[in-house]
Specification:
Layout (H helix, E strand, L loop, with lengths): L2 E4 L7 E3 L6 E4 H9 L2 H10 L4 H16 L4 H13 L5 E4 L2 E4 L7 H10 L4 H10 L5 E4 L6 H11 L4 E4 L1 H11 L8 E3 L5 E3 L11 E3 L10 E3 L9 H9 L10 E4 L10 E6 H5 L3 H5 L1 E8 L1 E3 L3 E3 L5 E3 L1 H6 L6 E7 L6 H12 L6 E7 L2 E2 L9 E2 L11 E2 L1 E2 L6 H14 L9 H5 L23 E3 L9 E9 L2 E8 L27
Parallel strand pairs: 1-3, 1-6, 6-7, 7-8, 12-13, 13-14, 14-18, 18-19
Antiparallel strand pairs: 2-9, 4-5, 9-12, 10-11, 15-16, 16-17, 20-22, 21-23, 24-25, 25-26
Length: 507
């Protein structure tokens, strides 16, 4: 039987669909489950492995994860667990992996990290057992999977490995020049991905909606496609359509991939590509995140290639109630701070029913066909796996301006989605705090902007906050409120009052 191996780190809210007769070893799922295991987090907190603040975050994340609600709070708790995982070679995030030293665009740096990384060791051993006597197809769809993929080639032997996936299709020529990969087969093929049922119901007419910060009832189920203005016949059509019946898996579409010919799908796509989809494809959409560099009253948006497209046809073709969000990319050529600021304000207000999905810095792809004026510089000679290039253009935000604007808006908008994940694209409207941030030390109830978590049973109250850790995105923060007595159930060193204020960093 053919073995398909999914190395970490990729979107854990999706899974690959194997060809008939193939077996999948999802190492990405395994490592996320292991690092986000509540018992592991609790034990680490008791040992004070990362200090009192890390222990506080670990306890809060463990309490949320034990609920197994698979909602917004669960995503943020997983992100906290990944960020707190210590390794000499890599740093993890909910939707990212960075090298402790060097660049992901250099095969030398990636190989060095692959050899030093300790986090992947248990998963490598699983792969060695599963691949005994057969060939392993290692699926590499994204750059952040490269350290684990290179480690797998070293552990299994290049002659027994086929590297495949979207990244391999894009950078096959560069990968063939890496000596350590000599003997490995490179295949420009990638299996389809679907959203895991835990994060999207088999019949996608119901979805978990996160509770508001003042809610005390459990998270409730909502019908995101319900629209009071839609005719009853239209509502019936949406609920009874074959594509929405139980058992239908929702395909996850990203990059330049087209939507499936039939069946429901959701995606995270550049504006120009999504706007070109057929009406039939749009009618089967169950959640969409559109990547834009500028937006103007939802009629005109600029995508990653600098082309301006009209979103009105797209929005009209997507069924009522299906979540549509925009991820705004800051720092594109010709987009100054005024233009970008107006775009953020429009999306923050939810104009036209389109919400802000997140903010991130612009990076010009090495083969980008930007429509506007720009001067491009050759990539660094050391970056043999180069995907991005430096550029210069008039009326363009500088890096420090981009960083400052992202940090400021993440402070003002703490309710943004947890990360660039499929589960976030199909989720309904998030629960934005309806009160201004305040100092939790002065309050007797939940701090403003907080959502009460299911904390361990003790007198002290633990709250999970949706405040930004850095410009990479919002993250779960924690504040330990005052307690009336000394609570010995906390780890040693945790009896003192601890607090995390908005704007502080745990990095």
């Amino acid at each position: 039987m053919e073995l398909i191996v999914v190395p970490p780190l990729t979107d854990f809210t999706t899974e690959v669909v194997p060809p008939s007769g193939a077996e999948v070893l999802d190492l990405n799922e395994r490592i996320v489950e292991r690092l986000a295991d509540p018992s592991r987090l609790t034990a680490a907190a008791q040992r004070l492995d990362g200090g009192p603040l890390a222990a506080l975050l670990e306890l809060t994340a463990a309490a949320v994860l034990e609920r197994k609600a698979f909602d917004d709070a669960h995503l943020r708790a997983v992100g906290t667990a990944l960020r707190l995982a210590v390794d000499p070679a890599v740093r993890l995030g909910i939707d990212d992996l960075e090298l402790a030293e060097g660049s992901m665009q250099s095969s030398r740096d990636v190989l060095r990290a692959a050899g030093r990384c300790e986090l992947f060791r248990p998963e490598l051993e699983l792969a060695m057992d599963a691949a005994r006597g057969r060939r392993a197809h290692v699926v590499v769809d994204g750059l952040r999977q490269l350290p684990a993929a290179f480690a797998l080639v070293g552990a299994l032997g290049a002659a027994r490995v086929t590297l495949c996936g979207r990244l391999v299709a894009e950078q096959g020529a560069a990968l063939r020049r890496v000596p350590e990969l000599a003997g490995a087969e490179l295949l420009a093929w990638s299996p389809d991905r679907v959203i895991r049922p835990l994060w999207y119901d088999a019949a996608p007419i119901e979805r978990v909606r996160p509770r508001h910060c003042h809610d005390t009832a459990p998270a409730e189920r909502v019908r995101p496609r319900h629209c009071p203005d839609a005719a009853p016949a239209e509502q019936a059509r949406l609920c009874d359509a074959p594509d929405t019946q139980p058992g239908k898996r929702v395909r996850w579409v990203t990059g330049a991939c087209p939507p499936p010919a039939s069946g429901p799908w959701a995606g995270r796509l550049d504006a120009a590509g999504a706007a070109a989809f057929s009406r039939d494809a749009l009618a089967r959409c169950r959640g969409l995140t559109i990547i834009v560099t500028r937006i103007d009253f939802l009629a005109a948006v600029t995508g990653l290639n600098g082309m301006t497209v009209d979103l009105r046809r797209l929005l009209a073709g997507i069924p009522p109630g299906v979540p549509v969000t925009c991820e705004l990319v800051l720092g594109a050529p010709g987009m100054d701070a005024g233009v970008v600021g107006e775009s953020v304000e429009l999306l923050a207000e939810g104009a036209g029913g389109v919400r802000l999905a997140g903010l991130r810095p612009y990076r010009m792809a090495i083969r980008s066909a930007w429509a506007g004026q720009s001067v491009r510089f050759p990539p660094d000679a050391r970056n043999d796996l180069a995907r991005w290039i430096e550029f210069d253009a008039p009326d363009t935000m500088r890096a420090y301006e981009v960083t400052a604007m992202i940090r400021e808006w993440l402070r003002r908008l703490p309710g943004l989605p947890a990360g660039r994940l499929a589960a976030c694209s199909v989720a309904g409207p998030g629960a934005a705090p309806d009160c201004a941030p305040a100092d939790p030390m002065t309050q007797t109830g939940p701090p403003a902007g907080a959502r009460k978590s299911f904390a361990p049973a003790r007198d002290a109250l633990v709250y999970s906050l949706q405040q930004p850790i850095d410009e990479g995105g919002p993250a779960m923060r924690s504040a330990l409120m005052s307690t009336q007595r000394k609570d010995t159930s906390y780890p040693k060193g945790m009896t003192l009052l601890e607090t995390v204020r908005p704007g502080d960093s745990t990095a």
